[in-house]
């Protein structure tokens, strides 16, 4: 399995194209791959935001840097417990509006074991 994280090839409202994956709306990406991000799996909502369970899969795949996208309009929050989990594991965290998060993630992909959660709408 590759340690490189898949690059995000394009992002627009409601659609992302990721290297090696079918196009979709929201994604979990990590060293060696990724998959669609289904918020229903962990009960994620815009508020309180990204849950600790959302980042566990990234860490299980070896991510030591995590990029959390806040949505195109910064409406997706990050639960404080999620940030605590990442701090406790000494994970470097970047939080940003989605297009900025994609830039950060793509800069790190291939050079760092980076994972990310990407929300392509609000």
From TrEMBL:
GO cellular component: cytoplasm
Gene3D superfamilies the record matches: MTH938-like
Keyword line: Cytoplasm
Listed CDD domains: Mth938 (cd05126)
Record's protein name: Mth938-like domain-containing protein
Organism: Actinoplanes lutulentus
Listed Pfam families: DUF498
Subcellular location: Cytoplasm
Record has Cytoplasm as a keyword: yes
Keyword Cytoplasm listed: yes
